[in-house]
Amino acid sequence: MHPLCDNVYDYSSQKGFSAKSYRGFVYAGSQKARHAYDIFRKKAKSSILLYLLMSVVALVAFIHIGAYSIRYSKLEGHVGSSIEDSYTAVYSTVVSLEPLCSKSLNMSSNGKSGPSIKISDAYINQIISALKYINSKEAIPDGGDMVELGNIARTYQKAFDIYYQLVICQYDSATRTRMEDQLFQLEKKLYPWIINGPMYHSAVESLLKSKGRGIVMTTGSKYALVAQHSITMLNFIGNQLPIEIIYCGEDDLGQKERDALTSLHRVTLVDMQSVLGLKKCSKGWENKPLAVLASSFQQVILMDTDALFFQHPETLFETKAYKETGALFFRDRTLGFGTYGRGPGLTDLINTLAEPFKENLIFNTSRVMAKVSSDELDSGVVVWDKTRSMPAILLTCALNSMPYMDLIYSKTYGMHLLFKSNTR
After folding, report:
1. Coil, helix or strand for 382?
2. Architecture of the 211-411 domain
3. Where is it mainly found (predicted)?
4. Which of 245, 248, 280 is nearest to 261 (CA)?
5. Where do the structural domains in the chain lie, given as residue ranges?
6. Which of 42, 194, 377, 390 has the fewest CB atoms within 10 Å, counting from its CB?
7. Kind and range of the H or E run holding 384
8. Number of H helices, E strands in the chain
9. What spatial distance separates the first Cα and last Cα of the chain, rounded to whole Å?
10. What is the pTM of this model?
11. 10 Å Cβ neighbour count for 194?
């Protein structure tokens, strides 16, 4: 049973609907999920800034897009690993879903045969109109207007949710064509690296082509030896997951180091500059979220090259937290608030953006906001399920890029906080 077509929730029937994940409230089939929806609707009214907030600060790490919605809906299941590598072939692999889609979804298909979607035409047209308005502007807001960026990102999320359903449920119509046209236009402006490369034409295509589970590391020549050590340790403890080493351009990882790494068991090298069509490569933390996009895995354990496991890394996928949310994080060390100058800038940023959400449980229990620690979570090991997180992953990448990176990194310890804030 595919979660996409299981009791798809009708957005348009609820007023005040805001900041919902496509894995939680769109597919809110359980009573618990519906109850959670009611709670969040009361707490997240006028949530213009919520989606952006989830993508900026560490304290919101656990409530970013998919995180809080999956936590309450407790839905499991992913796009099946049987999905082929060809985008065209995707449609043939979901034929078995047609009866389920037809049974549980009921949007008009304009007289054509095939499954229907339980999202009103009026709501879809509303999102398409919003996309058209955004696309009519010459450029996406720069780093000086993070609120507007949040508005645009939330509109993109809603459009992505709808389009993903249309693709999975094989809904072929003029509505899908119009949604696709406007969504792809916005992707080109907002997340250009997803379509610049030779492999993908859209974020949905990237998601559908990903499959299986695996480990991802980023490294250049400088830390290649450290990566070899970590991989050797993984093999020693019996790791069975494939490993992808992500680098950015030939200048990043020399031929000698590439040869050494590929000689190791289960290791594949991926040049994300080629995969994503990046014009310029970075050599630091910024590569980490892009590495998740560039990887071929659907479920990713992203680990630093100096992280060492003492048990099989596959056990992370079996943890209760990951199964419920589609992501898993570890707390950072506790340093006094203000250590190395970290903490105050982050709280100032959050207090500006999070005014409507200060009663949120996670907001109030954050170690940073309570001034107990200068850091919230660590990014040395992060587990991410792309099927529940794609819009969040994309926004994380954007905020780790110019023109937003300078502002974010001036307020936080850069990737150390930002990556975890979106992870789902």
Report:
1. strand
2. Alpha-Beta Complex (3.90)
3. membrane
4. 245
5. 46-80, 121-207, 211-411
6. 42
7. strand 377-385
8. 20, 6
9. 22
10. 0.65
11. 26
